[in-house]
From TrEMBL, chain A:
Belongs to the truncated hemoglobin family. Group I subfamily. It comes from Pseudomonas cuatrocienegasensis. This is Group 1 truncated hemoglobin. Its cofactor is heme. Pfam families: Bac_globin (PF01152). Keywords: Heme, Iron, Metal-binding, Oxygen transport, Transport. InterPro entries: Globin-like_sf, Globin/Proto, Hemoglobin_trunc, Hemoglobin_trunc_I. SUPFAM superfamilies: Globin-like (SSF46458). Coiled coil: none annotated.
Automatic annotation (TrEMBL), chain B:
Residues 1-21 form the signal peptide. The keyword Signal applies. This is DUF3034 family protein. It comes from the Bacteria. It comes from Pseudomonas cuatrocienegasensis. Keywords: Signal.
Amino acid sequence: MRRLLLLALIALAGCAQQPPKDDQLYRDLGEQAGITRIVEGMLLNIAQDPRIVRHFENIDIVRLRDKLVEQLCVEVGGPCTYTGDSMEESHTGQHLTPSDFNALVENLQDAMDAEGVPTPAQNRLLARLAPMRAQVIDR
Amino acid sequence: MRSLFVLGSLFCGLWSAAALAAEGRLLATGGATSLEGAAGGGITPWAVLAGYGERGEWGADVFATRVETGDYRLDAGGVAVAYDNRVELSYARQRFDLGNLARGLNLPENSLSQDIFGLKVRLFGDLIYDRLPQVSLGLQHKRQKDFLIPSLVGAQRSEDSEGYLTASRLILGGAFGYNLLLNGGLRYSRANELGLLGFGGDRRDRHSVLKEGSVAVLLDRYWAVGVEYREKPDNLSFAGESDWADLFVGYFPNKNLALVLAYARLGEIATLDKQNGVYLSVQGSF
């Protein structure tokens, strides 16, 4: 009985050290395939957005898509690794404004709407991305 | 009629200004227009500025609001202009139709009107992104235009200024995944029924510190539901003055239009109690 208790304690301690990753949001966004469609939808929206499209000219759009998918995947608790540059690095010299940032948010929201992502899942993703604004604008 | 014409020309002017105005802020973050002309909810202002202008951009609103309580009717309309997501200037005209009270008491006038000139400055913070909530300081100068009745019931002056400090924060996913808007403010005022019954009274002639606030849940990008509350002073002895509250639904189909429908509980106004009714507001943004 005491050994069982000890085993249970060790098992619990193991759990405490390695909590199961919360991937609820990852699943709500449709996992890898869903996130890829959202990112591609956003990039297509941006391509038609005169407010910010100029910031996406002369860049490797396929690489951008791949890194964005990785990044979103990591942010929402998915089984991915982000291999891109830091937010500061990738936005330096672009002099992005608060309006530019919001324009991107709107293109992302439209892409999520098109994918049928429920509002709470959309908001949870935006809440994860909002703190990055300071690393993106005015660089 | 003339004021309608003036509003009409302002409207046209704003349409042409719309070409210059960018729309850098997110949908619904310009709020609606409060009864006194400042951007916000219905009976209270928010810390946000009129329109959708971000840094270096212009924003503007025109609005028209009607409140029907059965015994009374309040109409309000006006304009607000903001620049740089920093400063807002507003003008509103209110007309309070005394309806049943005027007929019942054979009053010398059947309506009370006032002009409200407003200034609001964002002090610091941001509605969504900064570490701190958006905090704004507002000033309103009000001119009551039909002072006979207010003076007869004890109001001390027909013109006065008041200030308010207000903080607003949108918490992304803050209400079970839905965006939550919190707003709270303090007002320093001695206006009787917003100033429609003049300023200061026989019972009290000093400014009071008054609490106001609202909570709203955004069901999606376009729809908001919420409650508002506004404390009011009680300066006149001839009748009690009640705090105001309402339940509202706001619809923001795009960055040019906002509609607000509310059920307002206005309590006792100028001796008539239980003034509850419908509030409807239309706003154009540029």
